[in-house]
Task: structure prediction
Amino acid sequence: MSGPRRLPGDPSRAETIARIVRVDHAGEYGAKRIYDGQLAVLGRSAAAPVIRRMAEQEKRHLAAFERIVVERRVRPTLLSPLWHVAGFALGAATALLGERAAMACTVAVEEVIDEHYQAQLDTLEDSEPELSAAIAEFRGHEIEHRDTALAHEAQEAPGYPLLSAAIKTGSRLAIWLSTRL
Result:
């Protein structure tokens, strides 16, 4: 991998790739669980078809990273049981606040993921074309999800700035933890 020189204590190239695969697998799993929670609450609402469409894309992303985890022999995050519960709880809790709050959750998560995936693409540069292509494709879908949620009045959710900030903070913490554990 070209780019900045490694410093003592920096992860090796192989560990960097393993961390990318690990955290992206965890993130797609978490996204699936968020949508599962939202659909458990809003399954018959007007927003349900939109949420289902986004959830289907997340399931395809997860399937791709499940394949990559196996192919590259990367250990999944040790925090999967936590993300199983936390993702569903976040989705259900925001859905209980209403369709706009569920959409606000999507906007907040996808804004963090957009930044996260772009940083990974910058790190990978041209060294991992297949992995980079998957990340770039999925990043495009995540941006679409954000835009869809904005079109469904996410910013009109009660307490939007606070809700968004809390979800973004939690998402960034989940990324940091899943990269390492």
